[in-house]
Amino acid sequence: MGPIPRELGSLAGLRRLLLHHNQLTGPIPPEFGSLTNLEILLLHDNQLTGSIPPELGSLTNLERLWLGDNQLTGSIPPELGNLTNLTDLALYENNLTGPIPAELGNLAVLETLWLWGTQLTGPIPPELANLAVLKRLWLGGNLTGPIPPELGGLANLERLSLGYQLTGSLLPELCILTDLKYVWVG
User: What angle do CA 26, 31, 37 make, to 5 degrees?
Assistant: First the structure.
């Protein structure tokens, strides 16, 4: 309970920081951008507020970043596209706004992208089709426009959940995804 101490950002050798389910409040300290050895950062299921610090984009060893189920606001920093070792990105159930940054398409080893339960707007960036090993894609919010046909190239996709405001028809390109086990289009 209470805010996350900024002093944790000085623990340079830290590899895992697991603070989920603790009723933490206040912002995510930008000092966490100094934790360059960090591999796992789990802050989900708290009451964190403020924006996602762009400094987190400096954590190039990070494999799992879970910030879901908080009260975070603002946009997704494009700097998160620098996290080239990231396999799981969970930003669900926050008050995030703005578009999905095209830079997230740089996350070459990403297996799970959870963005449902947000207020994100705009089209689904076709750059997400660059996520060649993606298995789970959960999008929500107020995304608009058609489903990019490029998503039909996500050969490893097993689970797909798309938001409420999308237009156009369900793509025949999705029918060639033989690993697909779950599809939800609201």
Answer: 125
Question: Which pLDDT tens digit goes with each residue over 121-155?
Answer: 999 999 999 999 999 999 977 788 888 888 888 99
**Any idea which residue has 């995510």 for tokens?**
28
Is the pTM higher than 0.90? yes
The whole-angstrom separation of Cα 165 and Cα 84 is 30
Give the C-alpha separation, 141 to 155, whole Å.
25
Strand partners, 71: 49
Q: Which residue is listed with tokens 């999008």?
A: 139
Q: Render pLDDT for 48-82 as a digit per residue (tens, 0 to 9).
A: 999 999 999 999 999 999 999 999 999 999 999 99
Q: Report the distance separating Cα 104 and Cα 92, nearest Å.
A: 15
In contact, 154 and 127? CB cutoff 8 Å: no
For residue 70, give every residue at least 6 positions away whose Cβ sits within 8 Å of its Cβ, in sequence order, or none.
43, 44, 45, 46, 47, 48, 49, 93, 94
Using alpha carbons, list the distances in angstroms from residue 28 to 25, 46, 137, 166: 9, 11, 25, 32
Rounded (to 5) percent helix, strand, coil in the chain: 20, 30, 50
| Cα 97 from Cα 131, distance rounded (Å) | 22
